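Box 3.1 A note on notation
Throughout this textbook, protein chains are presented in two layers. The first layer is the amino acid sequence; the second is a token string describing backbone geometry. Keep the layers aligned when reading.
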Amino acid sequence: MNRSPNRPMRPIALLIGGMLMLLLACVSPGGLGERIPPEQKRAYDVALSPLPKNPAEAEARLENFLEVFPDGPLSDDATEELARLALLQGRSSEAFDRLREVIQKYPKGNRVDSVRVRLARWEWEQGRPVVAMDLIEAVQSKNLNAKDRRAFARLRFRMTDDPVDQLLFLSDLRQQWAEEVSSQQDQEAASASLKEAESELNAVETEIDGLLASMTWDQLSLAAQALGREIPAGRIQLIMVWREMVGGQLDQARTRLSEVEDYSLTQGDTERLANLQQRLQGDSPVFVDLVPSFEEALRQTWPDLEDAQGTIGVVLPLSGRYAPFGQEVLQGILQASYVFKDSEEVLDQPGQTALGEPSPPRSTVQSIYPSAENPVVGSSGTSASLVSSDDSPGIRILVRDSEGNPDRAAEAVRELAEDDRLMAVIGPIFSAESDAAAREAERLEVPLLSLSNRLTISDEKKWVFRLRMTPEDEVSSLVDYAVDQMGLNRFAILYPTNRYGRGMRKIYWDSVLARGGQIVAVAGYEPNSMDFNDSIRTLVGYDLLTPSEQVALEERSKAMRRGRRLEPEQAGQLREILYSQLGPEQQPLPPLVDFEALFIPDAHGKIQLIAPQLAFHEVKGVQLLGSSQWNDPELVKIGRGHVRGALISSSFDINSRVEPVQDFVEGYRAEFGTDPDEFSSGGYDAMRLVLTQLVSGRESRQEVRDGLLLTYGYPGASGVTTIQPDGNARKRPFMLQVKNRRLQAVD
């Protein structure tokens, strides 16, 4: 176990509060089976009788008790009770002195191990890890009650930085909470306690999953060996199976998977096992890459969707501040569902073909919104708020407006789930409403395809899928291309100091390090800034100058100003000479552009301002890297030569020559008379993923869910999609570069 001497100090009030909760959890006087003389038991009860009204009197009586019975079986209990009373009255130093007294005077008492746990936590929080470690290593856990054992396991988890040790302690804690849940289930009147125990158990399970996801192969192997076949050893094996699948080691994955059934598994583990077994069937795709290229994805056989039949729900923000985004997604969904197919015939003779025979619409939309007052209308005038018989063939779409409100989103899912024919729900978009809808969908066992990019939406949920591209996929693909295709190794970051900018900085930094690259310069700027002079100067080393170097820079600037009178060729030679000279300390003077690529995670409007200022500060010959926010024609139109060659990863490329994208863009423009975006393309792909399940003969909600879990390398308008066992989609973004005065695909 690692000892970490440098631990942050927490607010003293929180520490005392936590310790007070532990002290209040003290067991009843005397150990199990310990014989207590009757006169001592009576004297101890008398000492406690003033509580809780008169703690001062109780303290005086406890002190007197210890004078009369200094070495009795209740002396450690009395001392610990004095510690509790001191802590309640704010005398924390005295309280912990009392606890130390329990250890020193009564080392064989029944309270000593519980007290060691409390003191160890206190010492750890006070930044004294060596003392805390000595205390915790002396604890005999078999002497602890259930609450103290859980506190002991949690403290040991906190006191190590080794992921394997952390997992073992969390596993111990998980087992204890599982036992508590089982115990509470056996008691009829323990509903509140049962809910608390179940909540704690779920929280520890989530911690375990997060830790497992971050562990290396070697760490997983060590942890699996230490756990034997107890929970979560089986889950570790399932994670290792998944990694082998992704790496193309299918034989090893099948062999490992065949052994997992012999392990102790949770219900969630059993579902993961079934999913992986499905994926490793003989006809399942080979996992050469988690998210293949468009070329590879298009080699697979995908069904014709025009004959799909079924009922699909849609929950989107169609009113309020997020309505424009919801409208885009809805239009993409309608485009995918053939709702406007053969629209001219339907309009000329409602419900009739040119031959006069009945021909109901290919898809019908029954909705609260859009309505007659605010319908979705194609360019030909076809309304998407048509309502026909429930028995109409084709796709039946039930639309509900979430209003951007989490409660309304959950209510909409409940409404839709009441229809037995409903196969899946698409939406919502943003995190809060998606979280609420996901919880309801999980409870009602309805497949829900959220368009959020928050990874936790599908956590511990077997009916919830998250489809939108994540920042991690976007950035990692950008870095992969820069390293693999451009041979770049030294990177810099210039970022806005808001939540988005800091988050993207971390993701980019981690991605670069994961590829063996180096981050050699970082600088931030205020999100609302229009002048980036100071940030750029920081990026290239001006903030690290010594006084003598500042003088040297001023002299160089004067020489450069005098050189303006020279002919251009001579001025260039002078500049080259001046910038090649070392400073007074024999070090290069700024600008120190020692990076090959610069990543700026901001909107295209800001990049148009930043790029010229980079050139002004001599940041030239550097590969600019940008996020999907750069993907706008205005970037090239206004940025001009300053953004030439910039590389962008994007969740949508309207100019892509890939067939699925071209078909979508052409159809969308024809029906809506405008260009689609990442939201409409996301809605389009979500609908087509569901239609793929329906046309493949899946006729129940569970079959649709199982089919979605088998999605590998689906080529759509928003990129290539693979759905992982946890319901999270992985996507391959479009790689774009500024060439010939426009953004062009490079992959």
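The domain at 472-545+590-650 is CATH 3.40.50.2300 (Rossmann fold). Confidence is low (pLDDT under 50) at residues 1-28, 283-289, 342-361, 368-389.
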